[in-house]
Amino acid sequence: MLKKIPADYFDSSKGTLKLLWEEEWRALGITQSLGWEHYEVHEPEPHILLFK
């Protein structure tokens, strides 16, 4: 599934995805159990979201 990520989800100074709040990543269609946190952006592959 491909989805366009809104421009305001990006850090304008770096041009990479910012860390997303739970409401933001769930709005993108990501489903996980409660308690997960988006904690890092892997800059070489910005399409990969890291959760803990």
TrEMBL record:
SMART domains for this protein: CKS
Alphabetized GO MF terms: cyclin-dependent protein serine/threonine kinase regulator activity; kinase activity
Pfam families documented for this protein: CKS
Entry's transmembrane regions: none
GO terms, biological process: cell division
InterPro entries registered for this protein in UniProt: Cyclin-dep_kinase_reg-sub (IPR000789), Cyclin-dep_kinase_reg-sub_sf (IPR036858)
Keywords: Cell cycle, Cell division, Kinase, Transferase
Signal peptide region: none
Assigned protein family: Belongs to the CKS family.
The protein's role, per its UniProt record: Binds to the catalytic subunit of the cyclin dependent kinases and is essential for their biological function.
The name this protein goes by in its record: Cyclin-dependent kinases regulatory subunit
Native source organism of the sequence: Neosartorya fischeri (strain ATCC 1020 / DSM 3700 / CBS 544.65 / FGSC A1164 / JCM 1740 / NRRL 181 / WB 181) (Aspergillus fischerianus)
